[in-house]
Design brief:
By secondary structure, this protein is of the alpha/beta class. The chain is built from five helices and six strands, in the order αβαβαβαβαββ. It is globular.
């Protein structure tokens, strides 16, 4: 155990976060996301017993968001005609606002199949037990500054 590090950040996930460089992306995937098939070229980290908000908050305590792009955080858009509500997105925006001065302006949306394509090129994908639908979030790493 370490002081000041959220306990949900496993040694494996901490290692992955440390390995990532500027502009590398990590996906925090909901329980329905095809993690293993999307992550064939990525490092897959399993945190099945946790939800996305808890993991997002923990990661953002140690992970800077990219300041050189408009949307370093991207959500998977709801498919047109899919009668789904996404209240979890408001929770994400609140978490992001606590860790990045841009707040919800740092958050963009990517069409579902384009999100899958982007996820296939991510450095890592975190599998969670999140039950909310369309709860996937992609983060782009920035530069660590003093």
């Amino acid at each position: 155990m370490l002081k000041g590090i959220p306990s949900v950040l496993s040694p494996e996930l901490l290692k992955v976060l440390c390995e990532m460089g500027h502009s590398d992306r990590i996906v925090i995937a909901d329980g329905n996301f095809p993690v293993e098939s999307m992550g064939k070229n990525a490092k897959v980290v399993r945190l099945d017993g946790h939800g996305v908000p808890e993991i997002l908050d923990a990661i953002l305590q140690v992970f800077p968001l990219d300041t050189y792009v408009e949307h370093p955080v991207n959500l998977m858009e709801v498919m047109p005609g899919d009668p789904v509500e996404t209240p979890i997105w408001d929770e994400y925006k609140e978490i992001i606002s606590r860790h990045d001065d841009r707040g919800s302006a740092a958050v963009g949306n990517i069409e579902r199949f384009a999100f899958y394509d982007e996820a296939k090129t991510a450095y890592a994908i975190v599998a969670t037990g999140e039950m909310a639908v369309y709860a996937n979030v992609m983060l782009q790493k920035g530069v660590v500054k003093d």
